[in-house]
What does this fold into?
Amino acid sequence: MDWAYLHDTIAGQGVRTEEVTMRVSANKRLKEKAREEKAQGKAQRRLERRSERDRRPPAPPGVDPDIAGIVPGPQPVDDVPEQ
It folds into this structure.
């Protein structure tokens, strides 16, 4: 942040520098708190995914779970009623 610009802009509005500093500090604390809460939420989601992965039964040997059940070739057409 360009403090000289901020000071010149706010000084022209009749606001004291101390008030600006307090406002900036408060905004910074709010941003830090939001960042910390977001990080805690991400950590919680990681733990949930890890526990789900641990509870899932292992895939049979020789089967890639990402492509299991995919049938190569032309796919069947769903019967969609025409309107």
Notes: The chain is about 60% helix and 0% strand.
